Amino acid sequence: MLKGKLTFELIKTDNRDYPIDGKVEPTFYNFGETDVYVMEARLKPGESFQAGATGFEMTGNVPVRFEGAGKKDCKCYFVVPEKC
């Protein structure tokens, strides 16, 4: 059985190259008051977007940007696989 650690990163500013290297099933949640765009997918406040494929360790970067005025609070939850 594979093992991993669930963790998250807080995103509060635009990032054209947010790294997803080594992340398994990265899922972005918008906890703020503004819209967030992840890979041009709009997340309204309270919405989420799964950016990875189940069971795959991701590589590369994705663009994240905020639109509008208000609290900017996006969290990316993901699993970091444990090396055996």
CA radius of gyration: 13 Å
The CATH topology assignment is Jelly Rolls
Give the number of DSSP strands.
Answer: 8
Amount of beta strand = over 45%
Number of helices: 0
Element-level helix/strand string: EEEEEEEE
- Biggest sheet, in brief? 4 strands, antiparallel
User: How many separate domains make up the residues?
Assistant: 1
What class would the helix/strand composition place it in?
mainly beta
Low-confidence spans = none
Using the coordinates above, name the CATH class: Mainly Beta
Q: How many angstroms does the end-to-end distance come to?
A: 11 Å
Q: Can you walk through the features of this model?
A:
This protein has 84 residues and is mostly beta strands. The protein has one domain (4-81): Sandwich (Jelly Rolls). Helices cover 0% and strands 54% of the residues. The protein has strands at residues 4-11, 15-19, 24-30, 35-38, 41-43, 48-50, 61-67, 74-81. A four-stranded antiparallel β-sheet has the order 1-8-3-6, with no helix packed on it. A four-stranded antiparallel β-sheet has the order 2-7-4-5, with no helix packed on it. A hairpin with a 2-residue loop joins strand 4 and strand 5 (41-43).
Quick recap:
The chain has a 4-stranded antiparallel beta sheet with strand order 1-8-3-6, with no helix packed on it. The chain has a 4-stranded antiparallel beta sheet with strand order 2-7-4-5, with no helix packed on it. The termini are close together.
